[in-house]
Batch of 2 targets.
Target 1
Amino acid sequence: MEQKSMKQCKICEEWKNEGIYLLISFICSDCEKEILDTDPQDERYQYYIDRMKRSHVSSLLIQ
Amino acid sequence: MKRVWYRIKFFFLTLIIKLKGKPDEIYYIGGSEALPPPLTKEVEKEMLDRVSNGDAEAKSKLIEHNLRLVVYIAKKFENTGIHIEDLISIGSIGLIKAVNTFNPEKNIKLATYASRCIENEILMYLRRNNKRKTEISFDEPLNVDWDGNELLLSDVLGTEENIITKDLDLSVDKNLLKSALSKLSGREKQIMEMRFGLSGNKEQTQKDVAEQLGISQSYISRLEKKIIRRLKREFNKMV
C-alpha cells in the first residue's frame, strides 16, 4: 500500500510519498525545499530549470 | 497538425495521471485559456488554511490554479532572448516560492503577491544572465591550429615580471632620493624640488626656476647637471 502511493519526483527522480504537483509533475518535498532555498544567482538554479523543462510542464503551458 | 499532436499528447498524459491516481480534475491542455481557472475567494481561503496545516494537496491546487499568471508574465519577457520554456520554468519556481511564503494575514491578494514573486524571479535570472554575458572564461578558446589544438585566453594572458616587487622598489627608491636630497644645500634642494616637482610641487622649466630665483637659465642648467652628478654619487654610496 505504501509502495503504491509513492510517486517519482521529476527533479531528483527518486520515489517519494510527500510532495506537490505541478500539473502532471510531482516534486518531492525535499526538492521543493531545495528550490525554495535556491536563488537565480546560484549555480544550482540552472539544474532546476532544466529538470522542470524535462518534466514537460513548460511545453504544456505554452500551448 | 500541431494541434492534433497536442491533443494526442493530452490524451496520454491524462491517462498517465489517472493511472497514477492523481485525485484532482485537470484542465490544462489545448491553450492557456484551458489552464486551471483562478479559484474563488472562498476556495482560495480554504486552500490557504489547509496549506498552513501542511496540506500538500491544497498547495498543489493553489499552484496549479495560478499557473495562468506564470504564462502571462513569462510571455512579457519573451523578447529578452531567453526561451519561453525556460521563462515558464523560472516563473513556476517563483510561483512555488510565492505559495510557500504567502502570509494570508497581510492585506494582499495571493495573485498580486504571486505575480510579484514570479516577475522578480524572472528579473533576477535575467540580471544573472546579463552579468554572465560580460564575463569571459580563462579557458575561452581564441583560436584553433591545424592540429586542432586550442589557443586559450589563459595561454596569452600574463603579468609584468616585477608586478609584485614594483611597489616595493618604488618605495625604496623614494627613500634613497629623500636621503640623497638631505645631503644637498638648501638652494640646491630647492632647485631640484622646483625642477622635478618633488615634495608635491609641480614640475617647472629651467626658465621658470631661473626667473623665480633671479638667476640666468644657463646657470640653472649648469647647477642642475652638477647637482644630478652629486646625487648619483650619493646613490652609489647607498646601494
Target 2
Amino acid sequence: MAKPTGQGAVIEAEGLTKVYGESIKTHALRGVDFHVERAEFLSIIGQSGSGKSTLLNILGLLDRPTEGTLRLLGTDVVSLSTAERAAFRNEHIGFVFQFHHLLPEFSVRENLLMPAWIAGRAHKGGDSRSDDILAFLGLEAVADKGANELSGGQKQRVAIARALMNSPEIVLADEPTGNLDTVNTAQVYDLFRRLHEEWDTTFVIVTHDRSIAQQTDRIVEVRDGLVEQDVSNTYARAGTPAGGMV
Amino acid sequence: MLALRIAMRFLLKSKGQSVLILVGIGVGIAVQVFVGSLITSLQASLVDRTVGSSSHVTLEPLEVGGTVPFTESDRKNLEDDPAITAVAPQHTVSALVTEGGASVPLVLKGGAFADLNGIYKLSDKLVEGSAALTGDDILVGTTFATDNGVGVGENLTLTLAGGATLDTRVAGIVDLGSAAANSQVAFVDGGLARTALDRPEGEYSLVETQIIDVFASTTVAQTLQTEFPQAKVTDWQVENSELLTALQSQSTSSYMIQFFVIVAVMLGIASTLAISAVQKTRQIGILKALGMTDRRTGRVFLFQAGTLGVLGTALGIGIGLGLIALFGAFAGSSSSSFPITAQPAFLVLSAVIGIGIALLSAIIPYRRTSRIDPIEVIQNG
C-alpha cells in the first residue's frame, strides 16, 4: 500500500466557539485555535465537560461551530451544506467511537464496506481494499460473522477497520478504548500506531486518560472550552507498549 | 441502491414484525377486494335481473293509443349504433282468452322472433316446446299455461281489444322470471299482430332497445329523442328510480366500509413503521455519521414501506381472490346466489391503494429519520 506523500495542514481551526442553548447559554468552546499537519498522531485530553468531544464533533463535521472558521484539507467546511458535509465526512474522515457502533444487521465484512457503499464505490461482495484491511487487522476469520457475534475487542477492531475503509486523510477517535479492558486498550493503541506508520493517516484521539495521551506524539489539553496546553511528546514512540497482535 | 439493501436487511432481521405488518396489509386489502367485488357483483346481478331481459330505452307513441313511425332505415341506424345491442319494434295488443267461461287477459307482444329474443332472451327461458314464432305460433308464460291448463300444440283463440279474434297455436312455454309476466305476457309474430290490428307497415306500438352500458340509458335516450321527435323516448332508470336509490346507498355503504378498512390498515402500517424507525434510530445515526445523507437514510423507510406494500398487497389480492372462490364454492350452488367476479380494473385499483397507503405511512418515519442527530446516537452506547 503506497504511503500518501506531501505535507501540509489537514485541520485549520481559528476561533472556534460553540454555544448551546438560547436563553441559558452554555459555552462549550470559547475560541479554539487548532492546527494539525498531515500524518500527525496526536491526542486531545481534558476532563469531562471540558469541550474536547464538542471540538471533535466539529472537526468531524457532525456539528457546526457557533463562530470561527474551519478548513479541512484546504476546504472551508463551515459553509458546506448538510449533504456536502455528509459526503466530505464519508470521503475524508474516519471515525472510531467509544462504543463500536457496528450495524448488527450486517456481517463484519458488510460493516467494513458500508462507508464505501455509501460513497457508491465498492461492490456488494467487497474489494481488494477491504480484503487488505481485514488481513491487516487479523479479521479474515470473522469476516462473514454477524457483527454481534464478536467480542468487545474484535468489535472495536472492526470499527477501526471501517474507519479506514475509504482511505480517509483524518481518523478521529473519541475515547476509542473507553469501553475496553487494559489488554484491549493497549492493543488498540498499538494498532493505531501501526496504521499510522503504515498508511501515514492523521490520527486525532480524544481521551480523558493521560497515560494513553502520553503514547501520542502531541498532546493538546482542553479546559473550559479553551486550549490550555499544546505540547509535543517526543517520548511517545519510545514508550509505545509492546502490545502483541491485536 | 444501498437504501434498498439496508431496507431489505432491516426487514429480514425483524422477521416477526415484517410478517405481522404483511398480514395486516394482506387482510386489509383482502377485505377491500372481497367487499368491493361482492358489492359490484351483487349490483351487476341485481341490475341484470331487473333489466337484463327488458327494454333499456323505449320509443313510445306521443299519444296513448298512437303509433311510432319506424322505418327500415331507422332500424338500420339504431343497429349501426355501437351503444345499442338489440332493437325490437313491436305491435302490442291487449287480448282476452276465454277458457271454460272465464276470460283471462293477455298482453300480446308481436314482433320478429329474433328481435324479441334479443330483448327477452326467449330461447334461454323456454321451458317446453320450441322457441319460434312463425305463422300462428304463440309463446305463453308458465303461470298462464298452468292456470289455464294450456299445453304445447294446443290451439288458443284470442279476442282482441277491437273485437276481432285471432287463432293461434301454442309453440312453447317460457319462464319470464316474474309471476306477473308469466301470467299476462305472450309473444306472437309481428305480421300476425299487424294484420290483426290492421296497421300499415312502418308503424309500431313501441320500439324496445337494449344498450351496452345500462347506466348510460339516460344519455342514449336523450340522443334518440332528438333522432325520433315523433316518439316519446323513455329509459329504464326513470321507471326504476327506487332500485337506483337502493343501489346507490349500497355503493355508498360499500365505499365507507372500504374506506375505513383502508384507514385501519394505514394506521397499522404507520404505527409499525414508526416503531421500526424508533428501533433503528441507532443504526440511522451511525449511517449518518458514516456520511449517509438525511434524504438517503429516509429512503430506507420508504423502501421498507414500498416492499411491505407490494408484498402485502399481493398477499391481500391472493387472499381476496381465495375468499371469492370460496364464496363461489359454498354459496354459488344455491339458486338465489349470484356469481362474484373480481374486475381486473378493481384489482389494479386495490393494488395501487395498497402500495399507496404503505408509502404514505412511511412519511412519519421518513420525517423522523431526517431529524435524527448522529451526535446524540454515537454518544450513547
